[in-house]
Amino acid sequence: MLKSNGERLWDSLMQMAKVGATENGGNCRLALSAEDRAGRELFVSWCRELGMSIKVDRIGNLFAQREGRNGALPPVVMGSHLDTQPKGGRFDGIYGVLAGLEVVRSLRDQGIETEKPIEIAVWTNEEGARFTPAMLGSAVFTQVLPLEKALAIKDADGISMKEALEQSGYAGEEPLARAFDAYFEAHIEQGPILEDNGLPVGVVTGGQAICWLDVEVQGVPAHAGTTPMPLRKDALFGVGEMIAALEQLARDFAPKGLVTVGQLNIARSSRNTIPGRVAFTLDLRHHLDEEIAAMEASARDLIVTIATKRGLAVSVERHWLSPATPFDDACIAAVRNAVETLGYPHQDIVSGAGHDAIHLARHCPTTMVFIPCVGGLSHNEAEDALPDDVSKGCDVLLNAVLSRANRI
Amino acid sequence: MLKSNGERLWDSLMQMAKVGATENGGNCRLALSAEDRAGRELFVSWCRELGMSIKVDRIGNLFAQREGRNGALPPVVMGSHLDTQPKGGRFDGIYGVLAGLEVVRSLRDQGIETEKPIEIAVWTNEEGARFTPAMLGSAVFTQVLPLEKALAIKDADGISMKEALEQSGYAGEEPLARAFDAYFEAHIEQGPILEDNGLPVGVVTGGQAICWLDVEVQGVPAHAGTTPMPLRKDALFGVGEMIAALEQLARDFAPKGLVTVGQLNIARSSRNTIPGRVAFTLDLRHHLDEEIAAMEASARDLIVTIATKRGLAVSVERHWLSPATPFDDACIAAVRNAVETLGYPHQDIVSGAGHDAIHLARHCPTTMVFIPCVGGLSHNEAEDALPDDVSKGCDVLLNAVLSRANRI
């Protein structure tokens, strides 16, 4: 099996981390900012050294292509993103782009040509920190989000995507939605599972389903000092019971069901007023669509039951439902074959976070390769990964992509 | 037994309600505002018609005195406040002042003199809506709050009490903390108990103890999509269990124990982030000091136990403790005797809200007379009371004050 040059990859990661470096060791390269442009230019300079050609599409997605023996075939694409959170880390996204670069460098080192072209994609505004939604570039490329709508989206300063693309020089002409043979995205896990299990590589079988609900519970606000307990309609006591029941719901759907109440707001709250209206969000996740549906039904049922029992009015609205995204069997097999042949410890894993690969999976055969991140920490300046894991993940990517690129 | 003129009292209440009237039928007379001054002037004009003398102390508390046969004796004082919440009602405070006025009018009508002088007090800034804290004027009069400190307190526009008093013409010279024979405050209940029990009068035996705690629970913030349930330290799930246990605590101390979680904040909350830090307030009330101490101990114990079990860090700080305020036995007996002799249905009740009488109880023999308010509603433009209850409460005040004023 081929090996990549882990030290070179690490060096490139550390060089990229100097672009938009933050005080506490993290990175700030907001999408299409001067820092993001500088990061892209550094990447492009490395690609040009390899003789790769550069293309940019109309939403600023950047593609670096290495020719294949058969230029008529669609490319095998690797990639991720170079933009970061305002206080982001050095690996989230960047790893997938620079591992792709290291794959091409390794192929060149070893004089290996491929049947199909190989590309590295840098997707625009994956983080959603400057322009909402996240994964914007890949959504436009895969036509999940119409181009014109995306171009009109404005950042907090009122600057539109269109203006930001023109200002940064990344308003290109490459057509959207052109054919890919396959898409492979290497990424840090952004969770603690691989580290907890002591494994350097995760074979990603898909993205989990996500159901977001908005719950609002209405009781009667009243004076905390003058209202006897039996005469109260305390919305927060109702919500307390709901939260306890929702924690049990997660146990009922263990180990794959995830339940999070991330936001909770008491309307016009004061220390000595009985809460009259409480709103909270509910984030449900599972890797199976039928299970997410069952979780949603159970959550709705328990919320309404508790509210009704207490004489509280309640509304439960579905804010968003994203179905499970199974990745492509052949791509997963290519990754599994690579990691097994390399002899690296690994496990199957489902992606808990959103990634450009989730959009790409609707466009072409897709999968991902995960490596651990220290403490499961991400979207944080302290985000970190171990050089050995960085290296092993790239070896897996190299061999999986090579096999795909030569498969006729 | 004497009766007051309920119709006249109601008319005065409705005339006062025209001063600072709000669109939705409520009142806005913020302390020492032009509206508050106009309300005071209307009251003073009524008092002058009765030949009463007017005095103002250095924090703007206003006293209207009717002479007694023995001018050397300290006065029996009735009163409350004329200031309101920004969207306040027509009865909170005003009823206590104008019921006092009706008592004097009734005594005059019936040619009754008293041994001791009788006064009506209008306390400054009871609501705390313009200047914090609430019950400011009575706190200064009873020397709970030093005058100089109070004069320096500023409103939201940066205007100090001192400036507001000078601008309104209510910076007087009457000494603070002068002797009172007794203090009687009539007030709407601001809770639902009397209405729920169908009773026009409450014999108020004291003010309950209040314990305010600040709780902060610290877990680990993490990604809602990538963190398996067993690896989470979800601060909000811990708080959910605490809220459920605190609701049970109220049952353990039923019927007098009151428990309210009025405010809750998730630090840096987002829909798909596991809450890392949650702060909430806890309001505990009971009419007995030993029971409030037991409630606080139980609350602390259950909060720490739940946090510890879950591996969450927790802090519990006491924000404020106000001991129970037993009212004066002789004053309570005077009210009870009056209501029983009048034959009005009544019950003993503990004041759940703060009142000027709570401060006065530390200065002189004190009690209160409650009447129901519709739906228990207060601090609301829709605040309402029934004319028959308004009248009966005033009858009770009249006879209680008369007996006290003639008791040598």
TrEMBL record, chains A, B:
The keyword Hydrolase applies. The keyword Zinc applies. GO terms for molecular function: hydrolase activity, acting on carbon-nitrogen (but not peptide) bonds, in linear amidines; metal ion binding. Its cofactor is Zn(2+). Keywords: Hydrolase, Metal-binding, Zinc. Binds 2 Zn(2+) ions per subunit. Zn(2+) 2 binds at residues 92, 127, 379. InterPro entries: Amidase_Cbmase, Bact_exopeptidase_dim_dom, Peptidase_M20. It holds the Pfam family Peptidase_M20. PANTHER family: ALLANTOATE AMIDOHYDROLASE, ALLANTOATE DEIMINASE-RELATED. NCBIfam families: hydantase (TIGR01879), PRK09290.1-3 (NF006769), PRK09290.1-5 (NF006771), PRK12893.1-4 (NF009530). Belongs to the peptidase M20 family. This is Zn-dependent hydrolase. It comes from Pseudomonas cavernicola.
